[in-house]
Amino acid sequence: MLVIDLKPFPVLYTERLKLREVSKADAEEVFFLRSDKAVLTYLDRDPAKSIDEAIQWIEMINEATKKNEVVTWAISLKDQPQLIGTITFWNIRKEHYRAEIGYALHPSHQGKGLMQEAMATALDYGFNKIKFHSIEANVNPENRASIKLLEKNNFVREAYLKESWYYNGKFLDAAIYSLINPAN
Length: 184
What we know:
By secondary structure, the chain is α+β, with helices and mostly antiparallel strands. It has a single domain (12-180), classed as Gcn5-related N-acetyltransferase (GNAT) (Aminopeptidase, 3-Layer(aba) Sandwich). Helices cover 30% and strands 34% of the residues. It is built from five helices and eight strands. It has an eight-stranded mixed beta sheet, sandwiched between helices. A hairpin with a 2-residue loop joins strand 7 (156-167) and strand 8 (170-180). The relative contact order is 0.16. The model has no long low-confidence stretch (mean pLDDT 96).
């Protein structure tokens, strides 16, 4: 079975970014990402209603990180500490060496290749340090930008689930993308 040790928390760098642990100081930015209509367009979840909800989420993910169940990075520009997005491995199934990846980026930073940098670095860490065998993404099929990002990183669509998700009075489709560790 996969053994994960996130102590100390893995801080990662790209050409333009720093991926670090999310802290309570990020509450306002986390609240924005979890409540903004543009960010939530394809995430199919209710928006956060308060900073307190953002703080609770931060506490929840930090506790899960301490238990080596989740790793969520705050994405910030190297020269600015403000959180501009997040990228996470969650739904980790240690017995299968598999995790799900999720990510969100502030709209003002989209379209600049920043999430590509963050994803390439997170995938490298996931495959080469954590030793995942495979990583999956569950995507709203209408989210072309996310699908393009996944395909650029060699994810392939494994499944298309018709009306598999119920949200806001509607049954929604889901696309499952997966990437096997390229070293295997």
